[in-house]
Task: structure prediction
Amino acid sequence: MNCLTEFNENESGAVTVDWVVLTAAIVGIAIAVIALVSGGVEDASGGINDELVVASNFSSAFDPTTTIWSGKSANDYLAEGSSTAGNLGNSGANYGWATTYAAADAPDGYNFDNPLHTGTNSIIYTSTDGANYSIDGQIIAVDAYTGAALYYGA
Result:
């Protein structure tokens, strides 16, 4: 009978039960908060994802076949360069200024840092990834270009 009295008066397990109940309450509240918030977060992230998919499809589905071209020829840029250099007969200065003007007119995504031109007086702009040329507003793959790309000023 002494064992039963001791067991009945022992309260050491009561603390464990209290912690189990408190932990269960905290977990229950956390699950309720997650359930409440997750619907709104899922909707918001789904909307963002949809917009990103549309934007990426739009940019890759419509690769340009032409670029905006200023309409100027290599000789036009050379004339501008000569005018800026003061017509002093310094071909290095003339070509330097002409290259500056041609580079400033480069279409979006293209540059004139090579700098190249065709034998027919057209400026060749090179895409930033080096895969395409823009010649007189038309895009041509570098591998498919059959003309001679000449160094500007040569």
